[in-house]
Amino acid sequence: MEQFSLTDIKKKNLSDVYHYIYQKPSCSKQEIATALSVSLPTVSQHLTTMEGLQLIEKCGRLSSSVGRRATAYQIISDAHIAIGIELLPDKANILAVNLYGKIIAKETLSIAFEPTGHYLSKLKDAVQSFLKMNHYKEETILGIGLGVQGLISPDGSEFTYGKILNCTGFSIRTFADAFSVPCRFIHDAECACNSELWENPDIKDATYISLSYHLGGAIIVDGQLLTGRTGKSGTFEHLTLVPDGIDCYCGHKGCAECYCSANSLLTYYDNLDDFFSHKAEGDPVCVSKWDEYLRHLAILINNLHMVLEHTVILGGHVTPYFTEEDLTLIKKYVSERSTFDDDTSYIIQGKCLGDTVGIGSALPFIKEFIDGIYLFRIV
Q1: Lowest CB count within 10 Å: 56, 189, 310, 323, which one?
Q2: Rounded CA gap, 12 and 6, in Å?
Q3: What is the rounded CA–CA span in Å between residue 63 and residue 238?
Q4: Virtual CA dihedral for 318, 319, 320, 325, nearest 10 degrees?
Q5: Could you name the CATH architecture of 81-192+356-378?
Q6: What is the pLDDT of residues 195-209, one digit of tens each?
Q7: Confidence class of residue 271 from pLDDT cuts 50, 70 and 90?
Q8: Between the CA of residue 379 and those of 11, 12, 49, 218, 376, what are the distances in Å?
């Protein structure tokens, strides 16, 4: 039987009190004690400790019809923050995210990606300037996540497959050595999935399809990311959709990447705004291409759902352009291919429409703090 010391129990109780205030801001000491079945003196001690650490603060008094009004408490949402960076071929989006997962500062850096130490050095300088400009002290930062297009080692230190950016084997070390906080590369589809699950906390099992300029995906089982033995689970982009079809950048033919990515729509157009503008005007090439896109997407969704009977979340750069009619068509096409029934209620459109990769690259550090992992280290 596992034994716990008094210190362990104290830290666990403190974490529970913090978590309760996080979930229910403007709560009273008595409310916390009753909800957690902890004595008032114990709660008072933990509140005093966390006020001293500037983790929580008083936020007025609660209304009461009798007696003295109770003091209300809330967390200080920017007592600690995480930095999320979306690395793209021609720029980097740098975000500061508070403990509720909200952006509190943002900067876009025009910088062409290259797998070199010089690139990481320039990125490091930009992040340090960003922190200084916004008056963020390094001791308040929980970690720095870099959302990237590629497969990443389990420890987040290097690319294990980076054909899109031509950077297989590229290490984060030059960047990470400049900071005293954890720094990790994180697959961009995983980042986007993190953002969606943050906004949909009741979803525990999900298949996330990132319909971005390059296709990607993530699998969530019991609230945890399923990466597989070598980190390749969720690489839906390289499922064969059309045998001997269009050439994929991976060197094979007919991958879902070639039919369901945003880039697959841009054969004759510069960007998605341009494509959907022409589609809205009834351009027959765009209308036909879009219907073809939805039909291929339906095949991908149905295939994935046959293997993983999960909620399917559609996210990425294409989904903001979806209309109700588009979603109805996707479900119709999926239903026509379904072996067992025509229930397609498991297909949902993602809630997050902007900065999903940047936010999602910061969220793992926020979640670890809220869950008590980092909190234990500072008390």
Answers
A1: 323
A2: 10
A3: 58
A4: 110
A5: 2-Layer Sandwich (3.30)
A6: 999 998 889 999 999
A7: very high
A8: 7, 11, 8, 35, 6
pTM over 0.85: yes
Locate all alpha helices (DSSP H) within the chain, ordered by sequence: 6-23, 29-36, 40-52, 117-133, 173-176, 188-199, 257-260, 272-280, 284-307, 324-337, 356-370, 375-378
pLDDT tens per residue, range 163-217? 999 999 999 999 999 999 999 999 999 999 999 999 988 899 999 999 999 999 9
Contact in structure between 50 and 42 (CB atoms under 8 Å): no
Residues paired with 106 in a beta bridge: 95
Q: pLDDT at position 4, please?
A: 63
Are 6-75 and 202-349 the same fold in CATH? no
Say which amino acid occupies 26.
S
CB-based contacts of 160: which residues, under 8 Å, 6+ apart? 150, 151, 152, 153, 168, 169, 230, 231
Considering the four listed CATH numbers 1.10.10.10, 1.20.210.10, 2.102.10.10, 3.40.309.10, the one that applies to the domain covering 6-75 is: 1.10.10.10
Choosing among 3.40.50.720, 2.130.10.10, 2.40.240.20, 3.30.420.40, the CATH entry for 202-349 is: 3.30.420.40
Token readout for 253 is 């033919």
